[in-house]
Amino acid sequence: MSETPTPEKLVAGLVRLLTVKQDGPDHFVGLPQKGGVGRVFGGQVIAQALQSAQLAAPEGMVAHSLHAYFLRGGKEGPAIDYTIARDFDGRSFANRRVVAAQDGTPILNLTASFQKPEDGLAHQDCVMPDVAMPEDLKSDMVLRQKFADAMPDLSETQRRLMLRPRPVEVRTIDSLHWMNSEPKPPRAHSWFRTAAPLPDNPDIHRAIIAYASDYTLLGTSALPHGLSWMRGELIGASLDHTIWFHTPARADDWLLYVTDSPWSGGGRGFNRGSIYSRDGTLVASVAQEGMIRQRRTD
User: Fold this and answer.
1) 68 contact partners, CB below 8 Å, separation of at least 6
2) Could you give the number of structural domains in the chain?
3) What pTM did the predictor assign?
4) Is 119 a catalytic residue?
5) 190 counts as catalytic
6) d(CA 28, CA 56)
7) pLDDT of amino acid 102
């Protein structure tokens, strides 16, 4: 049996995964996830595309937003190529457009906007929900083990994927989205952070927040319907994904991810997310629409 990697090794692997390599002018390559299976995680492609854009951004400017469209599902195994278009360079703002492709076929388009940091009018017209602190919650890995033990029909592959050690620790306040068993309001709360400290590089912290922002978002629109991903009752895929980075934050400190879904219909679900630092500061906002369908039983 292989040895369980330490949290430090898991996080170092995530940093390597999200550290794209330059391969010519305005062209970068993202390595595949080691041991990945099936379709590439959407958060990985977003984070690698953001990292590519950050490397091509003007010096002294930082990303304040990104807008991405998923075109096709990426395949685990092949590297992903990221090509940059420098659409705009201004004194205060700049724009970089990224096309992610595998084997010459585009899988994602992303546009990132950058700003030179400045002081300005400031307000926050929202309050972080009063929820349990992460220290009072069980790790999702403990809950995953509990569910795996209670599901004897799981295949060995399903069990291995469910219990695979993860570099981002999540502690869910309400319930695990993918084990949803009864209709409930389309709102969810979870804390997340990397399982070990990160380097003091703001770019990698933004990239990991972007990576983690795809974890629980789409599942929020399934909550009112009492259907479960794990029981094979749903089919889903992200269609687009937007993030606004309001203020710098560390991804190795606990961040609260508050999600809600005001609407679903026509095979699509619309989801929103707010990410808070534990002192109540709103550090990022997220929006996503995804394809979400009930699997046909025939």
Assistant:
1) 46, 49, 108, 109, 110, 111, 240, 241, 242
2) 1
3) 0.94
4) no
5) no
6) 10
7) 97
